């Protein structure tokens, strides 16, 4: 249906019907074919009528072809004008076949596999009746105390932007109207949700517009440039005004400057939360501020349906404001073909064939192996298959490896670490014991683990955070592993056996007490449905680790926020002429993170040589080529992620010491060398000036190319007018 048809439909709608299109309710409000018209609990609780449910615009969290078809059918029977529901859900990193959490996918630096994971998630979701996914989450993160860092791809604006585009392409494909195997994507959480003070979820976000534009906004804009259909507002304030009431953010920036004319949905309850935020005296004012800010859909609260009518009747808002919101929602329904095909791709028989297929699980296993990061290896890895291995720890036999946003993922169907190792090495050489729980343990468990480990040649520790210890509302002030797990490490260290630690966690941790007591550490994050199999592939060397960190691991939580693209300050500690004391430093810990952005080891080694620039200056039209030779100097084939960083030595405002500008992932056989070439242009040198102009300045720059954000020689060049 085109806009003219939609507008004529809107003209047939009553004001109540229009306003009801703007509410999104969760599944319990709808009872599908057994909907008996009774006023159910949720309806009463929310203080709405069943009339509103019959006229509502979208559903949150329904899935399964049967359920969706049933709800849609009943809805169409009760909706006067036959306007279909939009079905939306959190399909963040997989629908039922769960992929690694996005922070892990980020560490793969593999945009192709990231896109493929979103495509597979969309395929499974679409056949199960989902129309829109609340993903990708592209919030930039610098504070591992925040529980939702696991949902982000990390601390770099450029890399996050590349992943944002890859995820949107995967979810939406190139033509959402004709490709029924895709879903509309919803980029979130707009904006800067990843920067709460204290790393405490939902807390205040305070930063200059310049920093917002330089670091936090690029990935949302990248998602818009990739054609994302929907944007979700963040819970937090942006410069003192909650995002859902922030007219500068939502109208001036998102709609006017960025020309976004898609649907804007509030995050859960964010409209009504304007009251506790202290910018709305009551639900009427909350409704007024949100609709004026351009929020089209109110998720899970009822300020709109209860108060917009009176606001129109009092002349406080124009009915055209509501018509615009309704048109954007109906336009999305039309783009998805719901007026003609209200059940879209929902198909019970196909669902059984497609969801959790072997092919999808294999894709998850491949991406999981590339998302793990080898943080330490004193030669104990890869494991030999003829050695006796003791797998010890709370994650040795745990299905809690899907992460906190895995929604429909089945922990029971996840491949546990012990299963993965058994599949490879057979159970005869495998021993196991829990050793302790996540954060509780007994002397008996410890002693049992000690006995088991004493019978083995090598110990594989399986440690980490319960998935409830990260994700939404999962902020932690202490980012170490729980004490009982540190105790387990110490106890088993008494055996002086080769020991590997595999970590299952949703954030960079303070690894003291672990990394300094074992011979190897593999960061597995929450690796998804095939996690145990992927880790076994890595531990036995069938896959060579290639992942690299996209979020710094702090030396301790006292360093946070710690990130690679920081400013130098006027008293840099590592300046050649730095004083002993009066420099920017801590008295008790180093400034540098324990493990930097871009860091990751391999079972082989690589050398970087013959780095050179094609010239020593460029002007606005020219470009420079930076070439470097990378050699696999070890005995095993591997993938290396070559990174290009640029430093602006003197800007109109202070500039980060380094900024990632490009990367390339190359496969090298043992002994093989490849020449990698990067192109440097003036565009990459642009930044936000104090007047918010985005432009470059003539001056001196350094290019660095290397294996991570800390290594790589400086290659100077000039930008000239
Ligand atoms: C949650 C999350 C958001 C999610 C939404 C719907 O509060 O903040 O990311 O999409 O509710 O579940």
TrEMBL record:
Its EC number is 3.2.1.21. The keyword Metal-binding does not apply. One of its GO terms (biological process) is glucan catabolic process. One of its GO terms (molecular function) is beta-glucosidase activity. It is an enzyme of class 3 (hydrolase). It catalyses: Hydrolysis of terminal, non-reducing beta-D-glucosyl residues with release of beta-D-glucose. Residues 640-709 form the Fibronectin type III-like domain. Gene3D superfamilies: Glycoside hydrolase family 3 C-terminal domain, Glycoside hydrolase, family 3, N-terminal domain, Immunoglobulins. InterPro entries: Cellulose_Degrad_GH3 (IPR051915), Fn3-like (IPR026891), GH (IPR017853), Glyco_hydro_3_AS (IPR019800), Glyco_hydro_3_C (IPR002772), Glyco_hydro_3_C_sf (IPR036881), Glyco_hydro_3_N (IPR001764), Glyco_hydro_3_N_sf (IPR036962). Keywords: Glycosidase, Hydrolase, Signal. PANTHER family: LYSOSOMAL BETA GLUCOSIDASE, PERIPLASMIC BETA-GLUCOSIDASE-RELATED. Belongs to the glycosyl hydrolase 3 family. This is beta-glucosidase. It comes from Bacillus canaveralius. The lineage of its organism: Bacteria, Bacillati, Bacillota, Bacilli, Bacillales.
């Amino acid at each position: 249906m085109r806009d003219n048809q939609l507008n004529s439909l809107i003209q047939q709608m009553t004001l109540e019907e229009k306003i009801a299109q703007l509410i999104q309710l969760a599944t319990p409000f709808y009872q599908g074919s057994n909907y008996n018209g009774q006023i159910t609990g949720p309806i009463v609780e929310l203080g709405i009528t069943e009339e509103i449910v019959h006229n509502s615009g979208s559903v949150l969290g329904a899935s399964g072809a049967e359920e969706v078809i049933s709800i849609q059918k009943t809805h169409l029977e009760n909706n006067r004008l036959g306007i279909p529901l939009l079905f939306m859900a959190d399909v963040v990193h997989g629908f039922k076949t769960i992929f690694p959490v996005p922070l892990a996918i980020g560490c793969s630096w593999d945009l192709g596999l990231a896109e493929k994971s979103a495509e597979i998630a969309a395929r499974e979701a679409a056949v199960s009746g989902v129309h829109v996914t609340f993903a990708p989450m592209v919030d930039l993160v610098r504070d591992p105390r925040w529980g939702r860092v696991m949902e982000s791809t990390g601390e770099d604006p450029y890399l996050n932007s590349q992943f944002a585009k890859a995820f949107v392409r995967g979810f939406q494909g190139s033509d959402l109207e004709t490709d029924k195997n895709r879903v509309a994507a919803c980029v979130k959480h707009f904006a800067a949700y990843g920067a709460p003070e204290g790393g405490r979820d939902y807390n205040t976000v305070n930063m200059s517009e310049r920093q917002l534009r330089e670091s936090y906004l690029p990935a949302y804009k990248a998602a818009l440039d990739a054609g994302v259909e929907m944007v979700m507002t963040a819970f937090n304030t942006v410069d003192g005004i909650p995002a859902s009431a922030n007219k500068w953010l939502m109208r001036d920036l998102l709609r006017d400057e960025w020309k976004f004319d898609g649907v804007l949905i509030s995050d859960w309850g964010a409209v009504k939360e304007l009251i506790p935020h202290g910018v709305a005296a009551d639900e009427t004012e909350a409704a007024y501020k949100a609709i004026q800010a351009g929020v089209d859909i109110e998720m899970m609260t009822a300020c709109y349906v209860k108060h917009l009518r009176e606001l129109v009747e009092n002349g406080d808002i124009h009915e055209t404001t509501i018509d615009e919101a309704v048109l954007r929602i109906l336009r999305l329904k039309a783009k998805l073909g719901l007026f003609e095909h209200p059940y879209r791709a929902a198909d019970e028989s196909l669902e059984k064939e497609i969801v959790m297929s072997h092919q999808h699980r294999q894709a998850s296993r491949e991406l999981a192996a590339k998302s793990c990061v080898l943080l330490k290896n004193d030669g104990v890895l890869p494991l030999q298959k003829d050695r006796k291995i003791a797998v010890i720890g709370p994650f040795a036999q745990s299905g809690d490896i899907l992460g906190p946003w895995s929604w429909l993922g089945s922990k029971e169907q996840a491949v546990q670490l012990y299963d993965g190792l058994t599949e490879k090495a057979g159970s005869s050489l495998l021993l196991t014991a829990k050793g302790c729980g996540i954060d509780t343990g007994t002397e008996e468990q410890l002693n049992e683990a000690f006995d088991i480990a004493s019978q083995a040649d090598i110990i594989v520790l399986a440690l980490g955070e319960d998935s409830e210890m990260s994700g939404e509302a999962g902020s932690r002030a202490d980012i170490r592993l729980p004490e009982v797990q540190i105790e387990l490490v110490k106890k088993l260290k008494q055996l002086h056996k080769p020991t590997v630690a595999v970590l299952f966690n949703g954030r960079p941790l303070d690894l003291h007490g672990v990394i300094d007591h074992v011979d190897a550490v593999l960061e597995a994050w929450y690796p998804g449905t095939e996690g145990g199999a992927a880790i076994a592939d890595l531990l036995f060397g069938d896959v060579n680790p290639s992942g690299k960190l996209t979020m710094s691991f702090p030396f301790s939580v006292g360093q946070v926020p710690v990130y690679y693209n920081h400013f130098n300050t006027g008293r840099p500690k590592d300046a050649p002429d730095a004083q002993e004391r009066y420099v920017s430093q801590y008295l008790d810990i180093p400034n540098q993170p324990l493990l930097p952005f871009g860091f990751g080891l391999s079972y082989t080694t690589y050398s970087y040589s013959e780095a050179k620039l094609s010239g020593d200056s460029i002007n606005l039209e020219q470009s420079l080529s930076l070439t470097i030779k990378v050699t696999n100097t070890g005995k095993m084939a591997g993938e290396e992620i070559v990174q290009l960083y640029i430093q602006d030595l003197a800007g109109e405002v202070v500039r980060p010491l380094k900024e990632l500008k490009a990367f390339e992932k190359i496969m090298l056989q043992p002994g093989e060398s490849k020449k990698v070439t990067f192109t440097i242009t003036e565009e990459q040198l642009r930044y936000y000036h104090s007047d918010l102009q985005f432009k470059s300045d003539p001056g001196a720059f350094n290019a660095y190319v290397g294996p991570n954000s800390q290594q790589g020689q400086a290659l100077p060049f000039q930008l000239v007018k």
